[in-house]
């Protein structure tokens, strides 16, 4: 309450005697009292002081109590003033007018001291609840302001993290002479848990990979950054798939061994509650020989030059869940004009608004419909078709993959 004691009360009545009677009772009960002899004077006082309680006569010369009540309610005070109308009126319609005008309570004149005291205590309870609500709202606003500052700071950091994550795969398109690789990367949020890429093993061998880390957000993005570092062609000495070879020249572990090395690294070195799925392939550019491993990832596809589409692999366990698992190598043969597609489950599991997933058949349908396009255009068409399938808006999961054109 404003002021000390029980609060500040404004008594409004054109009768000085009536004001004094009310004032004496109020002061005896511990209230601070201000008197006004008219509605106009009361309004001037109320503009300067946020009174806690107003006792106003209804019938006064000039501005009536009802008119004063409406003007009082229009004042720009934060705190609420409890308004009690003093009246000899008892008609229900007139009482309703008073309530509509902003009055909280009514007392019939002549005023009973006991009844007035009881009505004042009821008003104080309401004012106490209102003050408590105002304070809670203030705390909520302050908390929301702090949260907004934190969100804005986090949003800026995530935008910067997305820029940094995009640098993990600097080349989205690479011509290896006898083959061309193109990458699709579309995170569902600021940062993603998918990774797709390629690197050169030797003059005639190329490695391709598609990775999907479990979960979303910053933790998954940090894991993709770690994995990008050990699958980098720019740092062959740190690449988990490469070996120096018996004669000192660069060589690579077979795909199933690459998966096994990753599994051991996740369980023995990194030791976090995360895992990832992966499709990793090695292509011999001279012969077209393809060998790959599928570790819990969607089935790799071969788009044959003649128009057919083949699914490769048999599933396989994800990486980082269980120790001593055995990963199976899958082999196939690419002919000139064939394309190999390693894709994340953000594509095959993309749902319609009704929840129906695209699936392998839906993916193959899109690839067949756009088979005449070159690989960058085909990946763009895939995103457009996927967006239409999802009903527009953002994808619920990261969408990524690597498409390799074999020239032979």
Automatic annotation (TrEMBL):
Enumerate the Gene Ontology biological process terms.
Answer: phosphorelay signal transduction system
What InterPro entries does the record tag this protein with? Bact_Sigma-Reg, CheY-like_superfamily, PPM-type-like_dom_sf, PPM-type_phosphatase-like_dom, Sig_transdc_resp-reg_receiver
Q: Does the keyword Protein biosynthesis apply?
A: no
Q: Which residues carry this modification: 4-aspartylphosphate?
A: 57
Segments forming domain Response regulatory: 8-124
**Recorded GO MF terms:** phosphatase activity
Keywords on record: Coiled coil, Hydrolase, Phosphoprotein
Q: Name one Pfam family in it.
A: Response_reg
> Could you list the residue ranges forming a coiled coil in this record?
137-164
The yes or no answer to whether the keyword Hydrolase is present is yes
Q: Signal peptide: which range, if any? A: none
* Record PANTHER family: HAMP DOMAIN-CONTAINING PROTEIN, STAGE II SPORULATION PROTEIN E-RELATED
According to UniProt, the name of this protein is Response regulator receiver protein
Q: What is the lineage of its organism?
A: Bacteria, Pseudomonadati, Pseudomonadota, Alphaproteobacteria, Rhodobacterales
